[in-house]
Amino acid sequence: MQRNQIIRTRLGWTLLDGVERLVSALWPARFKGSVGRVLLLPAVLLIGILVIGLGYMIEYSFHELDLSTYRLKDEYSLVNYAVIADRPVYMRVLNRTLLAALIVSVTTVFLAFPYAYMLVRTRSALTRKFLLIALFLPFFIGQVVRAYGWLIILGKQGLINSLLEGLGLPTLNLIYNYPSVIFGLIQYMLPFAILLIVPAVAAISEDVELASEGLGANWISTFRYIVLPLARPGLIGAFVVVFTLTLTDFAMPEILGGGTTDFIASAIYDSFFQLSNAGLGAALSMILVMIGSVIVAAIFYLAGTGTLGVREQSR
Amino acid sequence: MSIILDTKTNRRTVLKTGAAAVGLLAIPSVLRAQEKPKEIIVRAWGGAWGDALKAGVADPFTEATGIKVRLDFTEDNEIKPKIWAAVDQGRVPPIHVNWDTTTNATISALRGATVDLSDLSNLKGLLPLAKPSGLEGYPLVNTYAYVYVCAYRPEAFPDGPPTSWNVLIDPKFKGRIALYDDGIGFNPISVIVGGGTFADIPGNMEPGYEFYRKLKKNEPLLGEDADFTTWFQKGEIDVACTISVNARAAKESGIDVAWTVPKEGCKVDTDGLWVPKGLPANEEHWAKEFVNFALTKDAQQKWCSMLGLPPVYPGIEPPADLVGDPSYPTTPEDFAKLVSVPSPVLVENQPIWFAKFNEIFQG
């Protein structure tokens, strides 16, 4: 009986040794340090494809459209960039987009923080469940469907105007204007911001807040000097994500803007598809990428990459 | 003599035998070229447009050939670059037949992305409208004409339909008017209603741009075909420049909409069908057969009657509700009341007009 057990144990060891040798042959010990890098490969590959696409876009942006063949000319030129600089409409659309991105980002982060704080700190399971459902429900409804939902509510014969009419009050123009686009975007971006702020708030130990209050700080001081600085990674992250998503948004201005409050993404779409001018579309895309990158880089420069919880280079 | 005769006979025999052999060898490739695909994909517009194509052409084509027809509702402007990229890269294009505006189809022809349709048997006897202007042969074939009418809500016009396009700048309708978001269908009309003449197009579009500046103050909505129906349905607008098909479809679905051709006229245009290059030989053959089928009397009658548009097949009577309707031109006199800009002029100038339209309305 004991002998059988010894044989089984030895057999097990032999088997394990075999597996170990096989693993060593396939993945030698000297490669162990590069496991992380190998796991990074798919992501690097994806970004690489994106960079190749970006390279093509840069190339296209330096070719003018030949209207007799509707192909880009072979010669390199700055015509597309000159056209953008020459037509004030592009600057107006760009300014409109940047202003919207700023308003939406600030408002969304402002609204998202108390929601995230409540979600993390509440002791009521019912409240937490309600907040979670309210947070995730919009994710199951696409952006286009939500925008059409707003048409039903805010339209001239929509819910709000019907109520106003019922009360004998004049109806309002609640849709097909800039404020309605901003409103739709805030509603769309709010869950993204909350989801980014929640981990930052959850990382703040409640004991720290209690200690602050124990040392005599009121809730405003605790919030100002303890919670807000510690939640900074989430706040900055949410701001950057909402800002970049708004900067490139297409559907909301298209549906809620009534055609006269286009964002830069609409101008890019029009260049590529309505005008069949890939050169102009690429030049506009490059400008958008550059502006977005510079702003995000400036935020990280001012706030430091450490704000996102990323380990900063040791000095 | 007999030797000469023998020689001739021999040569003829050899030639005949050779020709027969070549013919026999060629049979498999000819058969392969006509081998039926399981389905063909036709890009189409949705709603009333797609329904009409399905009932008038696609279903009867399937009945006649056994080949299924799948309608692809990708936006016409979005399918264009996909086809171009496929043709340039030597890939099989994503669709077999493109139902397209003549202007867009002409652009694709200029890029060399279209198959020549000159050998279609049903081209004979069609109205001259079927032939694309400014292009060699038939890189596309026009299938009907359509008019960008002045559609309105009768309830908002108790004194009768609007008689002039100036209704669009009437402050009474502020925020309750609509145009296409690229000005398509209204650009030439804007010149005439703005005080210019047809001769000003395309050299002097300023009267039109001036009209647009006034129109902008009246806060128009800008959209696509589907938007007009939604806006009329939800009571968002009272008057719009849209294709008669959309107005008629809205009316048929119970929305209170009527249409008229104001005194300045309306733009008349055409749509057509084309086959992209790069399809396998058999699929190209049946794609062309689909286009040929769409030009038969029966297909034209059903398809165009459902759309309420004058077909390129001659002698087809208009649907009962459109008899005498100015948006259904059939005679040269009818067409004279409308504004038609040749496709080459549109192809060359539409990007410029669109840029200006955008500049005015996005300001």
Rounded to the nearest angstrom, the radius of gyration of chain B is: 24 Å
- Percentage of residues in DSSP E strands of chain B: 5-15%
Structural class of chain B: alpha/beta
- What sort of overall outline of chain B do the alpha carbons produce when their principal axes are compared? elongated
Query: Got a strand count of chain A?
Result: 2
What does this structure look like?
The complex is a heterodimer of chains A (315) and B (363). Chain A has 315 residues and is an all-alpha fold. Chain A has two domains: 1-61, no CATH class; 87-308, MetI-like fold, CATH 1.10.3720.10. In chain A, 75% of the residues lie in helices and 1% in strands. Chain A contains 14 helices and two strands, in the order ααββαααααααααααα. Chain A has helices at residues 2-26, 35-61, 79-86, 88-121, 125-140, 143-154, 159-166, 178-202, 206-214, 219-230, 232-247, 251-256, 264-274, 278-303, and strands at residues 65-66, 71-72. Chain A has a two-stranded antiparallel sheet. In chain A, helix 4 (88-121) packs antiparallel against helix 5 (125-140). The mean pLDDT of chain A is 90. Chain B is α/β, with parallel strands linked by helices and 363 residues long. Chain B folds into two domains: 37-145 and 269-328, Periplasmic binding protein-like II (D-Maltodextrin-Binding Protein, domain 2, 3-Layer(aba) Sandwich), CATH 3.40.190.10; 146-268 and 337-361, Periplasmic binding protein-like II (D-Maltodextrin-Binding Protein, domain 2). In chain B, 44% of the residues lie in helices and 14% in strands. Chain B contains twelve helices and nine strands. Chain B has helices at 2-34, 48-65, 76-88, 102-110, 187-193, 206-217, 225-233, 244-252, 281-294, 297-307, 332-336, 343-361, and strands spanning 39-43, 68-72, 97-101, 141-152, 177-180, 221-223, 239-243, 258-260, 267-274. In chain B, strands 1, 2, 3, 4, 5, 6, 7, 8 and 9 form a nine-stranded mixed sheet that branches. In chain B, strand 1, helix 2 and strand 2 (68-72) form a beta-alpha-beta unit. In chain B, helix 4 (102-110) crosses helix 12, helix 6 packs parallel to helix 12 (343-361) and helix 7 (225-233) packs parallel to helix 8 (244-252). The longest helix of chain B is centred in the first third of the chain and has 33 residues, at 2-34. Chain A binds chain B through residues 65, 67-71, 87-89, 92-93, 151, 155-158, 173, 176, 258-262, 267, 270, 272-278, and chain B through 75, 77-78, 80-81, 107, 110-112, 175, 181-182, 216, 219-223, 230, 234-236, 347-348, 351, 354-355, 358-359, 361-363.
